[in-house]
Design brief:
Layout: H1 6-12, E1 20-24, H2 35-48, E2 52-56, H3 59-62, H4 66-91, H5 95-98, E3 99-104, H6 106-119, E4 127-131, E5 155-158, E6 163-164, E7 167-168, E8 179-183, H7 198-202, H8 204-218, E9 224-227, H9 244-247, E10 249-250, E11 265-269
Parallel strand pairs: 1-2, 1-3, 3-4, 4-5, 5-8, 8-11
Antiparallel strand pairs: 6-7, 9-10, 9-11
Helix pairs in contact: 2-8, 4-6
């Protein structure tokens, strides 16, 4: 689909009566760069339900030097927000209840701008999921310039690479959602080992946030996470965490529980080295 192109919308088969997921990729990414990952996104959602799935490809803006790409997230957010408004007008898409925007890395902050844009039009996104939101250029900044809880009715965040052996990682080391999940402490994801593909290895932990989320869509395993104050050493002491039978949350697609409040919380869990990642 292309914005402002009614024919491409008709050809796409988009149905405004269905739930709609938008996925926004991160820095130096595109639909062509990781076709296996893109396929996993579509397969996960379309296997789960009959819904609209839109992959937002902003590869040209994401290929600039990093500071320029950071600035371009605002443009991407405005464009996607405008497109969502168009869909509402032409297909009666229910923005407040049926639109879920997922953003990876820089795309998570672009998703925040989407939420900010539609708010100015009198709507509020049903949900934003931030998958290892980018940290550099976003640490301790005003919520106005990054993803935050005001951008959607429910904001869930998965942190997987906030620290590397060299220091600060690509992901943000800060709670920014209604619920923030820190699998394996949010760093050094198990199974990410040095191999012949150095680029894949270097970004393995960062991309695990996508792998965990997509597996969670159809997994019978719950990705149960405990609410704790910190990972080490508290997580390893069960008595220091809230008991799972009272306050555990499912990490990933099914984390939103309409029977519970969206009181901010920090949740921890461990995963397997390889898929299936969820530990039973």
């Amino acid at each position: 689909m292309y914005p402002n192109d009614d024919q491409s919308l008709k050809n796409s088969g988009f149905d405004g009566s269905k739930k709609t997921v938008f996925f926004i990729h991160g820095y130096m990414e595109s639909s062509e760069k990781r076709p296996d990952e893109v396929a996993s996104i579509f397969n996960a959602f379309l296997t789960y339900d009959d819904m609209n799935v839109v992959y937002v490809d902003w590869k040209h803006g994401a290929r600039y030097v990093y500071p320029q790409s950071v600035a371009d997230t605002r443009v991407v957010g405005a464009q996607v927000g405008h497109f969502i408004e168009q869909l509402h007008k032409t297909t009666q898409l229910d923005i407040n209840n049926d639109v879920h925007v997922i953003g990876f890395s820089l795309g998570a902050h672009a998703a925040g701008y989407v939420g900010d844009w539609v708010k100015k039009k009198g709507f509020k996104l049903a949900r934003i999921s931030g998958l290892d939101p980018a940290g550099p250029y976003y640490y301790n900044l005003s919520p106005a310039v990054r993803l935050d809880t005001s951008d959607a009715s429910y904001v869930d965040v998965i942190h997987t690479d906030m620290m590397t052996m060299a220091g600060q990682g690509p992901g943000i080391n800060q709670d920014i959602g209604h619920v923030d999940f820190w699998p394996n402490g949010g760093q050094f994801q198990p199974g990410c080992v040095v191999n012949e593909d150095l680029l894949r290895w270097a970004t393995c932990g960062h991309h695990r946030s996508i792998s965990y989320f997509m597996e969670s869509v159809n997994s019978k395993c719950s990705f149960a996470a405990k609410e704790c104050k910190s990972w080490d050493p508290i997580f390893k002491k069960a008595k220091s965490c809230v008991a799972c039978n009272d306050n555990c949350r499912r990490m990933g697609y099914h984390s939103r529980d309409p029977t519970r409040t969206t009181k901010p919380g920090r949740y921890y869990l461990t995963t397997n080295n390889d898929s299936p990642f969820c530990k039973k």
